[in-house]
Amino acid sequence: MRVLVVEDEEMLADAVAEGLRDASMAVDVCGDGEQALEFIAVNRYDVVVLDRDLPGVHGDDVCRAIIDNGSDTRVIMLTASGDVADRVHGLGIGADDYLIKPFAWAELLARVQALGRRARPALPPVLRCAGISLDVGRHQVFRDERFVNLSRKEFAVLEVLMRAEGAVVSAEELLEKAWDVNVDPFTNAVRVTMMTLRRKLGEPQVIHTVSGIGYQLRD
């Protein structure tokens, strides 16, 4: 899952981003509305964690821009205001969820994960394919009831492959969905991660290379 965190409080933004990365999400961070508009113009995000009271371009205007783009990106607004009218207004302009600061980290994570599942055709929280089960909420993977200990990036890549439901996923798409904006487009990170992921999943191999196209998860 790829997430954009838009928050002008630097310490809070960094803390939220690091927590989401620990949950194997690819996270970009920016601190104002103008930069947020630039990010959403060139990248596809599953979820945007959006501070409402941003300097420059207001969070409401960023939310409207996301909605106007016609994308399936989900927006959760953060605000220090607990006023009911503010929450109603935020939801009224298109936000999918609303969370008041200060908030419990576990609640924010759960809400982001729930919105991520809605950013695409509805899928269960536990994905199953080719004898593999991936529990997004618990961050656990089993193959034939054997626990598989994956790194954050390996988990993210496997999740993208499983969500594709048998379709071929290109290396470019994996970079877009499992890495952040700082990744080198010419990196061999996908190939290296795929190699270690295959080794950990064991035999028989279920991740197949489709020559010249990408990768496919199947029996």
TrEMBL record:
Residue ranges the UniProt entry marks as DNA-binding: 124-219
Record-linked CDD domains: trans_reg_C
Transmembrane segment boundaries: none
Residues annotated as domain Response regulatory: 2-116
Modified-residue entries (4-aspartylphosphate), positions: D51
Superkingdom in the source lineage: Bacteria
Entries under Pfam families matching the protein: Response_reg, Trans_reg_C
Start and end residues of each OmpR/PhoB-type domain: 124-219
SUPFAM superfamilies in alphabetical order: CheY-like
Protein name from the UniProt record: Response regulator transcription factor
Organism: Lentzea indica
